[in-house]
Amino acid sequence: MMVGSGWRYPVPSPPGDFNGDTRPNILIGAPGCNVGGSAYVVFGPVSGTASLAAANAILHGDRDDEAGDEVAAVGDMDGDGLDDRLIAGPNDDEGGEGAGAAWLVLGGSLTFR
Domains of the chain: which residue ranges? Predict the structure, then answer.
């Protein structure tokens, strides 16, 4: 998969199965995308060039959050047998100015928490 120019270093997480179809899916963090950063879930199989505009799930951060600055595999946090991921937004202000945040992406429902 190729990511277009104008993005500040896209950050991929290791492949995992988020939707239970046994095919690897990917999560790409793009902290320089939009005004607050973004993270994109793309169901596999994925090869070659694909548009992230057609991602299966998208998280957009608020202004200057830098959502997607880091993305990480965290195993199966809710015990449903599907892989879960964390998305960091180091400049998120909901917990106080510049406090940062981490959003848990649960496989299956693709619920951002």
Answer: 11-112
Distances (CA, A) of 82 to 23, 40, 51, 67, 93: 11, 17, 25, 23, 30
pLDDT digits (tens, 9 = 90+) for 23-74: 988 888 988 887 899 998 888 887 788 788 888 888 889 988 999 999 988 9
- Is there a cis peptide before residue 14, judged by omega within 30 degrees of 0? no
Report CA-CA distances (Å) from 29 to 72, 81, 82, 95. Answer: 10, 23, 20, 21
Closest alpha carbon to 73 in 84, 59, 61: 84
Q: Which residue has the tokens 């981490």?
A: 102
Strand partners, 112: 105
Tokens standing for 64? 């200057």
Cβ within 8 Å of residue 32, ≥6 positions away: 6, 7, 8, 9, 66
Closest CA to 37 of 2, 5, 10: 10
